[in-house]
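Batch 3, record 17
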Amino acid sequence: MDFNIMVAGEAGQGVQTIGIILARAFARLGCHVFADQDYESRIRGGHNFFRIRIKDSQALAISEPLDILVALNRESLSMHCNELTKTGIAISDEFRDPDLSRQYKIIPMPLSGLAEEKAGDKRTFNSVAAGAAMGLVGFNFDLLSAVIKDYFTQELAENNIKAARAGYEYVQQQTMTNIKSDLSTVIKSSRLLINGNDAVAMGALAAGCKFLAAYPMTPSTPIIEFMAAYEADFNTVVFQPEDEIAAVHMAIGASYAGVRAMTVTSGGGFSLMTEGLGLSGMTETPLVIVLGQRAGPAIGLPTRTEQGDLQFAIHASHGEFPRAIFAPSTAENAFWLTIKAFNTAEKYQVPVILLTDHYLATSYFTVDKFDTSAIFIDRGLPLNEEEMGKLSEYKRHRITGSGISPRAFPGLSQALVVTDSDEHNEEGHLIEDAETRVRMTDKRLKKTSALRKDIAFPLIYGPKSANITLVGWGSTFGPLYEASTFLRKQGVNINLLHFTEIWPFPTRGVSSLLINSDKIFIIENNATGQFSNLFISKTGLKVHSTILKYDGRPFTSDYIIKELSREQL
Amino acid sequence: MAVTLNDYAGLQPAWCPGCGNFGILSALKMALVDLGIPPHKLLVVSGIGQAGKLPHYMKCNTFNSLHGRPVPVAVGAKIANRELVVIAVGGDGDGYGEGGNHWIHSMRRNHDITYMVHNNQVYALTRGQASPTSGAGFVSKTTPEGAPAPINPLALAVASNTSFIARGFAGDVEHLAGLIKLAVSHKGFSFLDILQPCVTFNHVNTYEWFKKRVYKLDADKNYDPSNKLAAFEKAQEWDERIPLGIIYRKQRPTYEDSILALADLPLVKQSIEPARVEKMMADFL
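Prediction for the assembled complex:
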């Protein structure tokens, strides 16, 4: 089983609401679901869509042909009809278009009329459409109704269920063939439906993040809202300050005082935070920054995706200090890497940047429930009160073999915790002399060698003997995985090397993984091949070609396959 | 054990002889000793400038942060551990220039911290450029035609509904120590603008210049510091007479009081329980 539904319409018509309800219903049945969204930076009007792929095995990316199109306005119908498969069906309101009707199977139905007649509320017309789509695939209505009930407040749920039933029954009376969905073969299991942002927020709360200071910016804002909604359950403080500069410094202050702290933003906010990144590096204060990339520079395309901030994240802030950069591939990976980000930040007392992007942040995945017993919290070297008592004098920046100094938190013992953004000595007091400067710089940079050992190697998907290798990083994993799997089935000797832990770059090990690769293709969502340049400079390997996409839209496996078809594989 | 001045003895200051910062440092130590606050319960967060060096010259938990950023660092630390006494210090360029946005919004939110601005009306560490509080016409190497009109920090504080606003003078250490005691004891954001003569770079606003003008509001029985309009009016006085003391004081709920997660144990003393996400996951099924 493998089919696709698209819900399309203008902002304000509830495209996302229907999309999530449908996706959640399939997930609750036990299907594997992947969904992505495309929307404009506006509150009303324009053109938005939400694509859902439903499978009985792992779903990691969209595939472009549509089995069902739910078109909430005329524009959506004319724009997307040509994406329907031969058996695909479109549901639309009663805007008749003889030309389109001749070419495609369209069910024009009185969405608003049914909403008014059956639910007494015109606004529920989108639930009529949702019900109709589910009617086409013969989805169990009671299960759909339960999902709608959980989604809305009690007051709204009742009318929306009535509306969905109206749509559901309407299409069942139609003579048009139903979509062959094979839903009966789905094995029941409980899967979470979460997007990248949800996963990061969940990971942060699981990791014990006690303080989030963040200024709203797409695509990271939902992380703030998510964590705020769970503030009471986790005794976490979510704080919206005056700007991103304040956000990063507040997080640093809270972390210095002993709690796990984070800030989330996008490229523009991160630009403002760069001095704070250096402050974290210099004062060795753990810090987690989520940088949800969107198409830049400046405001760029605020609701579109890009992997354009990699080199910026690696080099941001003046001076030299260690840092870690992780780029999650899926929602599940985002959950675990967020926890690792907190552990890494505290263990090495460095800033850690979690590099997501608009595509990962807003795309939905079904994942098995996270095994919370597998969550490991490593706070590094905090001293307890007893240990503090044994010290004659505490030095916050004591020079050790690893470069990592034991941490004390202010106010919890007699130890005085002194740190400085100026170059400082082991005690944390500012200095000017050349010798101490060198010793302290060496101390901080020394942490990199231990940190590097904690960075996981990239993973190979497919046979190690393949002579063609696709290389990617972060959110492009799904489309790359599907493209490479498809091509392998076509007889191409191909594998995929995918990076999620990018910095310090896991140089050693890469060459041995690619010993059989004659042709390396690097695929990334930017215009200048930022990862490709990094890969070449770190590994010395030859890259045959890059596939770059910087139109603000994510890769699909179909796109990658098409681009590769120009090459002689 | 009683806290003594000796507990707060720090490194030898690298300030110019006669610098107003000496008076401020003495007043701060006196106030802390009088309040019986031990150094390990105190956090001083400073910015960059001559004022930013202050915590190094005493002995306490210290975060010497960036130019303009002591207030957000202090706010973050206070939220993490409500039991800490948190004082932010910086100069006028640091607080009113680079950190102006943080200053205004932190006053409005009423975080329970004290913010001391060493206001010498000049950038001293960078050697004598005009600052946001330099008098109109102040000539410096970057303002050869004279500085534009200054901001009025006290009036801005009144407009931001700051719950404690006072002005002290580095040349009157005892009075300043009294104000610092009140500021630190006040629950909510305490803003203290401290007139600090710069003996090297500000030859206009000297000790003598201030001594001729300053007067103490405490002596004025008719002044009501809980009257916001009166406070705004008082904040306008400068050229002829300069008021010292509490300009405005009105208790209102602090940010920290309004946050449920802070009602019980300080955040830093709470345990990390990953299993709590179990319950949350049910919402995503």
